[in-house]
Amino acid sequence: MQLTKNKTTVIVMCGIFVALGTVLSVIPLPFSLPFGGSVTIFSMVPVVLLSQMFGTRVGLLAGTVYGLLQAVLGAAMSQAFAGVTGWSLPAMFLLDYVIAFAVLGFGGIFMKRIKNPVLASGLGAFVATFLRYVVHFISGFILWGSYAEWFFSDEFAGNGQLILDKFSGLSLSALYSLIYNGLYMVPEIIITVVGCCAVAAVPAVSRLFLRPAGDK
């Protein structure tokens, strides 16, 4: 048995899965990261699964809608855009929300190439979430690199001085973005890969959903 992939089904499933991902995104794990940010409970899994069910184009569209909802939630719940002005505002909106979540649509790229659904789902989830990490890294490097010296001098206590002695300028900004975004994205990547593999390991789910749908 296979999931019927007509337009109505696609629209309904996208609505349900994007809504599910949005709800999960506001339920962080019960601990705080030392430098801000939080790790959510499988919030990216629904969007990645959409790309594995219906193809990359649907996944990219669903990821974009999901990113727009994240921008709204960020503005309403955490004042994510507070104090951001000038060109940094649209750049942050595009990089940290629209593009960062749209790339989750690449989660299904291995569904036609790898026969093992668990491996295909897990690898796709890794690529998609790693791409999100890359986008956040670029955003942090471009928009927030000026915070690097403060970050390593004030937040890293004595250890930060070792980094400041070895890095400066662009290299320091890159290291700052790599570490800061990695603190929450690495756990998110692991959680998403595990979640997608767990779903794909269920035979009934795999037969119904995780079949190559084509990129129409």
Summary tags:
216 residues; mainly alpha; elongated
What does this structure look like?
- There is one protein chain.
- With 216 residues, the protein is mostly helical.
- Helices cover 68% and strands 0% of the residues.
- It has helices spanning 7-25, 45-54, 56-77, 88-102, 117-143, 148-155, 159-166, 169-200, 203-208.
- The longest helix is centred in the last third of the chain and has 32 residues, at 169-200.
- The chain is elongated and about 55 Å long.
- It starts with 6 loop residues before the first helix and ends in an 8-residue tail after the last helix.
Task: Give the helix proportion (percent range).
Answer: 55-70%
The residue ranges in which pLDDT falls below 50 over 5 or more consecutive positions are none
Strand content: under 5%
Q: How many extended strands? A: 0
Q: N-to-C SSE series?
A: HHHHHHHHH
Shape: elongated
Structural class, please?
mainly alpha
Distance between the termini: 21 Å
Biggest sheet features: none
Question: What's the tally of helices?
Answer: 9
Q: Whole-number average pLDDT?
A: 88
Rounded Rg: 18 Å
Summarize the helices and strands and which ones pair or pack.
Elements: H1 7-25, H2 45-54, H3 56-77, H4 88-102, H5 117-143, H6 148-155, H7 159-166, H8 169-200, H9 203-208
Write a brief structural summary.
This protein has 9 helices and no strands. With 216 residues, the chain is an all-alpha fold.
